[in-house]
From TrEMBL:
SUPFAM superfamilies in UniProt: Periplasmic binding protein-like I
A single GO molecular function term of this UniProt record: carbohydrate binding
Domain of life per record: Bacteria
Gene3D superfamilies (UniProt xref): 3.40.50.2300
Compartments in which it is found: Cell envelope
Organism field: Compostimonas suwonensis
GO cellular component terms, A-Z: cell envelope
Signal peptide from the UniProt entry: 1-25
Pfam families, per the entry: Peripla_BP_4
Keywords noted in UniProt: Signal
Domain Periplasmic binding protein: 47-307
Record-stated family: Belongs to the bacterial solute-binding protein 2 family.
Protein name, as recorded: Ribose transport system substrate-binding protein
Amino acid sequence: MKKNRTKLLAIGIAAASILAFSACASSGSDSGSSADSSGGAGEPIKIGYFIPGTNNSYVGTNVTAAEETAQKLGVDLEVVSANWDAATQTNQFDTALARKTYNAWLVAAVAPEQACGSIKDAMAAGIKVFVTNQGLCGDDTYTEGTLGFVGGQTLALYDGWFSKIAEDNPDGGKIALLTGPNLNYNTNNALAAFKDDIESDSKFDVVSNQQSDYTTATAFDVAQATLQANPDLKIYAANYAEMTKGIVEAVEAAGLTGKVKVYDFGGNEWATGAVADGTVALSLPMLPYTEVQKSVEELVDAWNGKEIPQVLDLSKELTFTGAPYLTKDNVSEFTAEYQ
């Protein structure tokens, strides 16, 4: 069996100009399997795993899953980090395409709209593309022409999360939201659901709706300012656990523990502990290891001519009582996949 290779690459901006983007219009589907997915003439698969960054616990777990799964399957995989820069990732795509570095791409985009043209160029050149974490080209999940999609932050899941928050707070009140970066479909899905389920409800007074960089430190600063301006805040929600931690620290520093209900979308080890002790009211956990493990497995299966689903919704992998929502009543049934 071929020896596995895993590398962490940060491919610089190519010196030569590469082909311009093609249009990003595409349609999606949630069922069936992809056609023309197998590799050519027994050619061994070489996967380029394009990832936004590697500097938080979620994406770090993604990388671990990619490397371990590739080793288990005996395939070559290289991790290509964009350091959270959309332009860098675009150049990584175009350089890899021009050099024919990989014959299969696993893509977690920094900016899904901007990535669309490069992805379509790669597919037109015969590269097999599998999408993970968030959709591309205006699609919430599957994009036509790719092999498939695995993710757990769809619009439907965010809609359910905010509906649950509204249900838990029938009297409404002042509410604040902190999400990830702009250009990110996970952020877009959260904001769209928040608008439909919270902003449209007259019981709620939205006093803060800000985007951040997923870090605890930045979340603390944002939350501290929000709480100083709104000491009567009732609800604070964040769509990543490391940001939720920053919010909890700010609530504690303001002496408002027990007065502000905190909601988490992420469910890492810290968040599940916070749910258990009542610091966080509810969490919808994410599965970063399963996300990439399943993505690599399905990509390799498709390469080998096996039929795979177009969409794997990771919330269906949550099997604890009352899934997908963790509360004090069921948190003991769940083990977090990342710190």
